[in-house]
Design goal:
Blueprint lengths: L17 H12 L1 H7 L1 H8 L3 H15 L1 H9 L6 H9 L1 H38 L5 H18 L1 H28 L20 H12 L19 H31 L1 H6 L6 H9 L4 H32 L18 H22 L5 H37 L5 H25 L8 H22 L1 H12 L7 E4 L2 E3 L2
Antiparallel strand pairs: 1-2
Amino acid sequence: MSNTGRGIPRLRANAAGLTGAVIMSAAIMGPAVSTFFNPQFSMPFSGAATPFVYVVCTIGLLIAASGIVAMSARVPSAGAFYTYVTQGLGPRSGFVTGGLTFVAYALLPPAEIGLIGSYLQSTLLAEFGVNIPWALIGLIPAGLMMFLAFEGIRSSLRAALILFTAEVAVIIVLAVIIIGSGGGPDGITAEPLSPAASPNGFQGLVTGAVFAALSYVGFEGAAVLGEEASEPRRTVPRAIVLSVVAVGILYVFCIWAEVVGLGIAQANATTGADTPWNELAATFAPWMKWFVVIASVSSMFAAMVNSNNGVIRMLFVMSREGLLPSFLTRVHPRHLSPTGAVLAQGIFSIVLVLAVGLFTGGFGDPAAGSAVYGYLGFLLTLALLPVYALVNIAAIRYFWRKTRDFNWLLHGVLPGVGALLVAALLIGQIAEQTTAPYTWFPWVIVAWVVVVGAVAIWLGRSRPEQIRLAGQALGGEEPEIVLPTRPGTHRRP
């Protein structure tokens, strides 16, 4: 099947500029929710040195992203990681990469639905004594997510821009108030920016970094705009780098303000069960309490919307190439959005949330909704980290064998070190989880890789044309949707 034949449904070109692409990546990282809820998982290990840990993570992520940036500039594609690995390591490796990427992006929307529901149920119960089941609350953002996806990528990116701006404004304002008030018990100090502030030495810094790195998952989101962004060879790589740098600086400043507000001793005593930003808002700016709640929810919702945009595009193009039911190629006659894929992913997200929620304790306990986020979040992280490593390895091989401008630093050393850093992070993630069902999840991903790998080998041997179509499906061009009017004729919107 041709990727360029007339009448084939396609998505719109030039639908996103640099700002939209940056927001696509930055919003998936969820700066507000990551700032409010992630550092306390590092603090039992790195303690007051957690801001320093985020400095290291930002630098490390820029290195780990080097292969992705290089490939997105050379072979921009909506298939993103699939295309990059296929170009560098071959279609079978690319097929496995596509399978892992699909899992990661498909699980993030239902994970965020569980988290939003849990957070709002707990908040409403604590503030008003009203107990609304988290699953019922979660249906509201799920419906809004589907509505925005029906409206098209431009509407989604506009909404994400508004939400992102609002959440960043809240966390910056609160951080500035903490610093402007002179900080907590120890006053304004640069000690949290030093590795010497770690109460558990070097091991504490390493373990703290394992948890801190999760705040950056999703930085690659702009890569799926490879055919919808204007000037994608420049826009996409710049968006990835800018989003990592901007969000990294935001993390470091705000988490430094957090430690300054808490004081060294309290930061060292903070655990994952604590909510330090709620305490800081109550201490330094009680009037901001509800702004913190709103920023948290908007951050979760923006991450959900942007990851959903990624996975529905995968479904749409796979269906277009005959690998999934044709229902998924349906497009909206006015908004030119993939309505079939939107509906399918929306139903999948809701059903999965409800199913996992029953397993974790039902719909009345907010802890069950939080567990949904924890389980699905850990699974998608285990799926995505190997993809980062594979892209870096693919970049080395691609530039070495297929181009004449191989640069030892940009295309050799940096992607190589990046692959090692990601591998170390993956091992650390698995090693730090010592309780069921988290200990089972690596085997779930291994089983998925085995199944997808077996399918790739079978297709390569018995149906080479089919795996070629898979390449087009996960990495094909998507410049514009073309709608048929009646048999034998076509029109362009």
